[in-house]
Amino acid sequence: MKRILAILLILVMVAGLVACGNGTPETTPTPATPTPAPVTGDDNGDENGDETAATGEPLIIGVPLALSGAFQDYGEQQRRGMILGLEYVSNGTGMIAGRPVELVFEDTTMVPDVARERTMSLIEGGAEIIAGLTASGDAIAILPLLEEFNVVGVICAAASDAIIAAPNWNPHVFRVGRTSGQDALAMANIIYNDAAPGATVATLAPDTVFGHTMSEPFIAAAEGYGLVNVINEFIPPDATDFTPYLLRIRQAAPDYLYVIWAGANPPWTQLIEMDIPGVGTMITTGAPEIEALKTMLPIARNGGIGFTVYYYTAPQNEPLNDWMVRRHFEDFGFQPDIFVPSGFSVMTAIATALEQTGGNTDPEVLIPTMRGMQFPSPTGMRWFREEDHQAMQVLFDVEFTYDPAIDHLVPVWRRTIPADQLIPPIMN
Question: Which CATH class is domain 45-178+315-393?
């Protein structure tokens, strides 16, 4: 009797399992937009994968960003970009290479020690990849952790050349955003294409590390193009009256003035009040985020040229950008700003690599896969330079225009500057 009961119990269990197996499977969520372009790389990398990838174990990506402080807006842009990027590369499923992805965000508060502490917490919490970083000081602070704990880091928008230079750089770091040096090359390239031979140039910048690291490579690049540097003015960061600095620039009357600025007390109104354009000087600069573009309306009425890393109408014939812009309007109700694409590109780079490794995040596999790898972005294809893992990418030559219906200066595309004209020196 006991034997008969045992057999009957086994039969009931088997019947239950069969019923479960023949039931209706849980459906995959339908993405909000069902037609994103595929990520490059094959999707049959099982032989390169490990048991983690094969079993579909969740992948935690730790994301330290400046979500408070002076760069809060930048960090929020990157966060939105990463969320949309994950939707795009996963076709709305939230999965990469068969692994469900969890993005875990931490606020660095723009304090390097806090960035280091919270990145350490992310690693201890199981993050297999670190991605993000808004401020260069935060990025530099966490670089040793990547090497010490053998984790790959994908840097978003922190632009300092020091990140990819000795002694900070290590093989675990990859950067999808551009460098200060690439910005400098873009500005010099634009002036060279716009100017007569032997044109004169000047710079106006804050007397800070940022100001010097942006102006010095520009001066070198400009002189390499045959332009003549006549004056460089550095303004103390606490100054509010720029009259003496602008008077010296006015007296020098350069053909082009490259204005390098970020943060409070922007110089745009004073430049016009001092009638710098009136001495035949063309004001040039890099187009920043939209809030800063609002402060630049005075120069738009007087003309000006420059470069932009991203303005949502700048990429030409890029379906991925069209997708991102549309989804950003749908989800957030406004256009994507300058750092949304860098967050987006972090996800396309990670997905491209993991599709090739079969979801394997072991740096011994992931680093050689990413070195020299091409990956899509909203501004076109990018690739990681093999020597220092810096992304090579296009920037945009723009004209600053005024539209009374728009509350900010509008950068209008003139030309896409090829990536091979924006290759900074190797410094690691």
Answer: alpha beta
